[in-house]
């Protein structure tokens, strides 16, 4: 059966984030709740006694993003989670690194696909345009 709980409810009710976070609970209650409202994509999440850190996978655009997220997420947090497809599982610090690097690989693959697609379409247009010109010259020459 499909899980109907939101990411926020899973974190709050199933994973009991508030039992671990002792200070700055508003990070979770207000900010994380707002960020996760209606969100269906993937994310990495870290918690510590003094708060939380949440990063959406879709916001990762470069290697610099990954470096910043790793430093921010892995420096102070003690527990780590990965959310995807309406499920959340606790993961290790090392897993977070793999997840972030995989996200960048997927972004680069999509960018390359789009570039190839764009390049192919441009090449096809040029090929088509050149063939039309060649045909026009042949007609003008009476061939």
Explain how this protein is built:
The protein has 5 helices and 4 strands; from the N terminus they run αααββαββα. The protein is of the alpha+beta class and 143 residues long. The protein has one domain. The termini are far apart. Helix 4 (63-76) packs antiparallel against helix 5. The protein is elongated, with a radius of gyration of 24 Å. The model has no long low-confidence stretch (mean pLDDT 82). A 4-stranded antiparallel sheet has the order 2-1-3-4, with helices on both faces. The longest helix has 49 residues, at 93-141. Strand 1 and strand 2 (51-56) form a beta hairpin.
Task: Write out key terms for the chains shown.
143 residues; alpha+beta; four-stranded antiparallel β-sheet; 4 strands; 60% helix; 16% strand
Question: Brief description of this entry?
Answer:
By secondary structure, this protein is of the alpha+beta class. It has 5 helices and 4 strands. The chain has one domain (7-141).
Spell out the blueprint of helices and strands.
Layout lengths: L6 H8 L2 H4 L5 H11 L6 E6 L2 E6 L6 H14 L2 E6 L2 E5 L1 H49 L2
Antiparallel strand pairs: 1-2, 1-3, 3-4
Helix pairs in contact: 4-5
Q: What is the 3D form?
A: elongated
Widest beta sheet: strand line-up: 2-1-3-4
Round the Cα radius of gyration to an integer and report it.
Answer: 24 Å
Helical region count? 5
Count of the separate structural domains: 1
H/E series: HHHEEHEEH
- Characterize the main sheet: 4 strands, antiparallel
Structural class: alpha+beta
> What's the rounded overall pLDDT mean?
82
Low-confidence stretches: none
By DSSP, the count of extended strands is 4
Approximate strand percentage: 15-25%
Distance between the termini: 70 Å
Helix content: 55-70%
């Amino acid at each position: 059966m499909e899980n109907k709980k939101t990411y926020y409810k899973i974190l709050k009710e199933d994973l009991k984030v508030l039992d671990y976070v002792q200070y700055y609970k508003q990070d979770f209650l207000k900010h994380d709740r707002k960020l996760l409202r209606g969100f269906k994509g993937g994310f990495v999440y870290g918690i510590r006694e003094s708060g939380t850190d949440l990063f959406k996978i879709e916001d990762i655009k470069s290697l610099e993003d990954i470096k910043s997220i790793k430093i921010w997420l892995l420096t102070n947090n003690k527990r780590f989670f990965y959310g995807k497809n309406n499920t959340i599982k606790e993961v290790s610090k090392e897993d977070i690194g793999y997840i972030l690097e995989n996200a960048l690989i997927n972004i680069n693959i999509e960018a390359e696909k789009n570039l190839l697609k764009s390049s192919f379409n441009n090449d096809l247009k040029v090929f088509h345009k050149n063939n039309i010109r060649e045909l026009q010259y042949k007609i003008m020459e009476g061939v």
